Predict the structure of Cystathionine gamma-synthase.
Amino acid sequence: MPASQAVPLGACVPPNTQHAVSVSLPTWEDNVDYEKGAQRVLSRMVSGYPRFFIAKPIQALAAHLCERLALPGEAAMLFPSQACAERCAAFIYDQAPKQQSLHSAGTGAPPAYEIPRAGQVRIVQYVVEAASKEAAALGGASDAHEGGVAVHCVLFPEALFPLAKQYWQHTGNGVSARMADYCLRIERANETCSQAPGGDCCSGYRRGSPHHRATAAAAVPAPETLAGADLEASAYIEERFGRNLDGKCAVEMKQALRRRIAGALGPSGPTHDAAGARSGEPPSADDVYLMATGASAVFYAHQAVLGVRAGKSVCFGFPYTDTLKILEKFGPGAYFLGHGEGRDYEELERLLAEHAQSPEGPIAAIFTECPSNPMLKTADLARLRALADRYGAAVVVDETIGSFANIDVLPWADVVVSSLTKVFSGDSNVMGGSLVLNPAGALYAPLRAALATVYEDLLWREDAIFLERNSRDFARRVVAIGRNALAVAELLQASAKVASVQYPKFTTPANYARLMRDPSGGAGYGGLLSVFFVGGERAAQAFYDHLQCCKGPSLGTNFTLASPYTILAHYYELDWAAQFGVTADLVRISIGLEPAGELLAMMQLALEAVPEC
């Protein structure tokens, strides 16, 4: 097995990568034990998917700020803006009684959460600022922020940490690991300078609550990242050899990203004249909103929709887990049509018609993924568009799995969201997301006005720079990955040990074909597929354990990455997920850029390990 594939349990994926997005869970049992909270797994994790695993630099910064700001028995969650912090506090107050009630009603057990009293959840703003040019240089911050970087700390009783973590996970709007690294370096440099003869330290907090304290004696923890000479060498390589740009270029790089995304979403031919499509001017860079994560894009799309029409939404098709949580927990709630085909269209029409006459008000929006994760189903967007138009609802499409290099969903959507963490970046070392408004959509003006009241650019400058660098060749990579994935899907589909392969070429193919860009230009079916085996979970485990590739959460990576998706995403609701075909024996594989022959040989070896039925 190549060294890059033999990644030990708990190590970064990709290996030796600063701010890696994934973590190695190489066996089926490792994934189960991770979900159970087994220490043999948790104690070895140096990273994890950033919305589920709070990165070590963020943990260190939170501990440092708790030393200065927290009361005894308090914990903290860190955000890059006051508005995010306020939403987190409101979420805790709103969800604590709701989840307590559900927990007690369902099990008869003690309440899951104590209900916080007024004032128990509070916000303190702490400003990190280099005390001097020497401190800035020592902290590796030649481009230090003028006026400092504000970190907004939500402080709450420790027992409420799971609720704050839910908000962090669902919205994707917490501070990024690179931002935490920056803050820790500056804090540590300030401390070093203040201890020098004649030194002074001007870093500190700005009060956002009457409760605060500072503990000057507490040492600033070293960020778990490159430091000192290694930091200088890394910056030299990144900046001097063209791999990356200086942080001062972040504004320009964000504009470059917006232009790149707008260009990729431009028209692709005859699909724009199909029934229900919105023909007109393609999006401009001003129609593209950059987000800190893909989940953040879904969250802000939902907020914008609620700003236009404050009704329930419909989630059409089985989505990535946090999409449904966002729709259910923020606002008036949502209907879930988890099959995303067949009778779900009739049920959608019934709900739209019923709500048009209901005191609750009309349905606000239809959310769907094209294709869906992990079942790779593609909705009939023309049919959804026609129904939405009839009842005045918005259509929000998440095209992350398909990628706007392969499919063109904008003509049928009011809003297109995407996780830029995935194939757009490919390097699996940075988080990001995008939201694009359709300028030809009937709801363009009201949605744009609603976004103006809620949207904040929370993409940390270094993250933007890495996204811009990584995405320069994304269109070429999408073509190569698509070809590899098609070959793998066809190999697995032909095996007698495989019950089915969920892949856009095989799964609701007619719907996908209507959205597909010109195949002669390289457009394909994407890089993701899900596999079910004739032998059920026993066969799936054998295949997974013998698969000689990186294994862990995430997708859209430049290297092949597999996971037992249902185990990771729905371990505590397996029966619920199984109702929609998302069973525990599902193995999801994100195909990478390896040579096709190597990939096919890898899959064949894993298939040979599956016992005969």
